[in-house]
Amino acid sequence: xxxxxIEVWNKCLSIIKDNVPxxxxxxxxxxxxxxxxxxxVLTIQVPSPFFYEYLEEQYIDILRKTLLKELGPDAKLEYxxxxxxxxxxxxxxxxxxxxxxxxxxxKNRPLSMPLDEEERTIKNPFVIPGIKKLxxxxxxxxxxxxxxxxxxxxxxxxxxxxxAVAQNPGGTAFNPLLIYGGSGLGKxxxxxAIGIEVKEKLPDKIVLYVNANKFQTQFVExxxxxxxxxFLHFYQMIDVLIIDDVQxxxxxxxxxxxxxxxxxxxxxxxxxxxxxxxxxPVELKGxxxxxxxxxxxxxxxDLQVPDFETRVAILQKKVYTDGIHMANEVLEYIASQITxxxxxxxxxxxxxxxxxxxxxxxxxxxxxxxxxxxxxKNTTRELSIDYIQKVVSDYFNIPVDLMHSKTRKREIVxxxxxxxxxxKSLTKSSLALIGSQIGGKDHATVLHACKTVNNLLETxxxxxxxxxxxxxxxxx
Length: 476
Known about the structure:
The chain is an alpha/beta fold. It has helices spanning 5-17, 22-28, 49-58, 60-71, 156-167, 187-201, 212-224, 228-236, 253-268, 289-295, 308-321, 328-337, 342-359, 365-378, 385-396, 400-403, 410-426, 431-437, 443-459, 461-474, and strands spanning 33-38, 41-46, 76-83, 94-98, 177-181, 207-211, 240-244, 272-277, 299-303. It has a 5-stranded parallel sheet with strand order 6-7-8-5-9, with helices on both faces. The chain has a 4-stranded mixed sheet with strand order 1-2-3-4.
């Protein structure tokens, strides 16, 4: 006598559990609910179409063997796929049966059955048709490879760790690998180099590079379109996930919560995570503590400002790659004058080549001195929220820590509001990030501060003078 559907499924699970990794069992089999058993046809309910297709691709063999063992050679399997109608957890689900036509013997059914167009949901945020074999564009720039990354004392640890990760993704102690440093020091280059190396060595690995802002945009769209589950499942399928500028998650609680679950799943599954940030984990503000603690599980490697020898080597690599001949004394002069970051260094070289071509002048040391001196003089200081707070606090002779306190003294509140105003107008930081770094405030407080400052600008001449003098200091 055939047992009921629950007993049959539990017997199947006992076999499956011994034949798949524990994390895979918890992720892909525990959520399945047996619905009914009629004439050797077992119907199981799965959370989403994505879930169904993944089972069909990865676990059809084990499902086939266990069902045949429990129900005999005439065993058949149907899926009931839950799909949310309104995007709310209490929404009444409706089901779609697979296969949609005649029931097919499990031993003869194809490995993956196509979905009708109307049944498709967003499975891949990068809008790549189909997910059966997850042909994911890794979003990598081929120029950002290890061969083009110049090693020096400033980046040797990060590069060595990155190369080790690329040779054995998920198999080293460097998981996650968090690369941090100031703007223009090569974080994106190194992170993408890891992805490129993995794809060359292990082409079957699914690699994806995505900026934190793009991840956030995709998450918002998935939420709006009631496809959060598919968004989550898509990212949980990646073998090497590279998230650039994770500091952009600051103040975005729902995004952080979603990324927390993705992080946990990938890490527990032995997949590799590579993150970049402008600060080390200990200095990241506006981030959940549980997420920060996970950032510290692996290795945090910094990229420092390159020394003179490394800057010269970067320029030599650049001109050699572009097939340009340039005297070493010219390159050494550029390297001695442009010291902030690699991006400015390469930008100066490009400007020099452009001017030489347009004016039909030979690149001599005297020409380089004339152009670079103007470039350095006209280069605007790259402003940060921390730098703006320092300038404002020095102007009013108020400690920065006092601006971060909860005091309601008028002069302290005003200094804090001015810092928020300039941070919004002179940086690309989000309101949430500005608020989190200036006293731990929310985006609404930042908006109110900017409105207050704008009102005082129109009505208070003395206040307007304060702002003009502070702005001059910021732009010196």
